[in-house]
Amino acid sequence: MFPPGLLYEEKRLQALRRYDILDTLPESEYDDIVQLAAQLCGVPIALISLVDRDRQWFKANVGLPGVRETERCVSFCTFAIEREHVLVVEDASRDPRFAANPLVAGAPYIRFYAGAPIQSEDGFTLGTLCVIDREPRVLDEQQCRNLLALKRQVELLLKLRLQVKQTEARNRQLLESSGDAVFLLDEAGRVIEVNPVAERLLGRAAPQLFGVSFESLAPEGEREPLRQSLQSLLSRGTLRLENLGLCSPRGDRFSVDVVASLQEVGSSRRLLLVGHDFTERRRLEQQSIQNERLASVGALAAGIAHEINNPMAYVLSNLGYLQGWREDLERQLTGLPGCPAHLTELFVEAKEVIAESLDGCKRIRDIVRDMSFFSHAPDNALAPVNVNGSLDFVLRMAHTELKRTATLVKDYDGELPPVFACESRLSQVFLNLVINAIQAMQPGSPQRHTLRVRTTRESGFVRVDVSDSGHGIPPEVLPRIFDPFFTTKPAGSGTGLGLSISHSLVQKMGGQLRVRSEQGVGTTFTLLLPMGEPAAEPRAVLAS
Which transformation does this protein catalyse, written as a reaction (predicted)? Predict the structure, then answer.
C-alpha cells in the first residue's frame, strides 16, 4: 500500500497520462497562450509545464528556446502543484527554498516566478502555467487574474483534448464493431486508418494499407474515375459511389457501395469512406438463379429420360441391324459379275447415312445421360481422394490431345492432404476442366501455349487451379459459363452440359467452383474442396 502522499502522486500521474500529451509536438493553441501570458505579465519567459514523475516537460515555451524539459528535482513547479492558488516567488535568490537551485545560481538565472496550477476535471494538479523573469518583481492583482484566466484556457484545451481522445476511442470501437468496411483517408487520399472488416475485405493487414493511395486498391481501369471522385469529395462534402471496384491481393475484383463524407479534424481534413460489400450477396443471388436452372434441368431430365431412352434403344438396335444387313448385301451384290457402278455408290452413301444416324442417336443418349446427373446425387459415397494422383490420371488420359496443343506445367503441393469426394466424379470434373483448357488453345503450336495445373491449401480447403493461355472468355459471357446447354464452342462441338455437370458435382461434394478469365490472356478454373470430413451442408458453388 502507498502512503497517502504517494497514493495521491500515483493517481495524479495516471490522470496526466490519460491526456496522452507528454512528448507531443508543439501546437499553436498552447503557444498563443504562453505568448499572451508573457506579454500581460511583462516577463521574457512563460511556460506550460507538465510535471511527470522525474521531470517537468514543457508543452509550450517562450523565452527558453530549445528547452523541452528539466529535471523535476530543480523544478519550481513541483512546489506550485502542491498549492491550490498561484505560487509567487518575487526574488528566488532570497527565498531559502530556491536560493541554491542551479536554475537560480546559474542559467537561466531565475529571480521571479509565478505559477498557476493546471488541474484536471477530477481535481488532480497536472502542472502549471508559469511566468519567469531574470529580475525580481511583483505580480499585481490584475496580472494574477490574467494568469488565472489563461490557465483556465489551458485546462479547457486539455479537456477538449481528452474529449477528442475519448471520442476517437468510441469511434474506433464503432469502427471495429461495424459490419461495413470503413476507411479513413487523408486529404491526398492515402489510407490512415481501417477497421477489421476492411482488412478482411482487402485481404491485407492494417499496417500494409497505411500510407497506400486508396485509388491504387481499385482495378487499373477504374483508378482515374475513383481519383476524380475523391477529389470532388473535398469540395462537395458528401459522395455516394455505387458498384465501386476494389481488388484483393490475388487480383480478384469485388464490388462495394460506398458512402463518403468529408470530416474536419482540428486544422486538417479527413475523408471517411464506409463501404458495404455486395459481392457475396450478388454471388448468392446468382447461385440461387443457377440452382433454379439446375433444378429445372433435373426435373426435365427425370421426366423425359424414360420417354427417350426406350425408343432410342430400339432405334439404335434397328440401326445396328440395318448396318449389318447393308454390309451383307454389299458383299453379295458387289461380288456378282457385272454389278452396276451406281449400286456401289449407293452402298457408300447408305453407309454414311447409317453412320450419321448412329452418331446422332448416341449423341442424344449421351445428352440424356448427362442431364440425369442433375436429378440425383453421385452414386458413389464420399471417400478420401488423393487429388494429385487423380489429376495425374486425368492428364495421362488427355496426353495425346495435350502434347499437340500446349506445354504442361504441374505445380503440386507434395504435402497435400486428401479430400473427401467421389473419386470417379472428381476425375470427371478434372477431365472436363482439362479438356476445356486444351480446346481453348490453338492446336499445333505447343511451344506457344501453356496448361498449368496447380494444387495448394487455402483456409481449410484443397485448391486446384487449371489455367490455360488461350483466348479467354468474354466478360459478358462469364456469368453464364455454368448454365446448362450454354457453350462458347461452335455448333455441334459440344452439348453445353460439361461445366454445368462439373458445377453440380462439385457442389454435391461440398466444394466450390470458380472461374476467372481475361480475353487474350487465358482462363483459370479454381476448384476448392474441403479438407477432412465433408460438411453437413454442401457449400455454395460460386462463379466470380
Answer: ATP + protein L-histidine = ADP + protein N-phospho-L-histidine
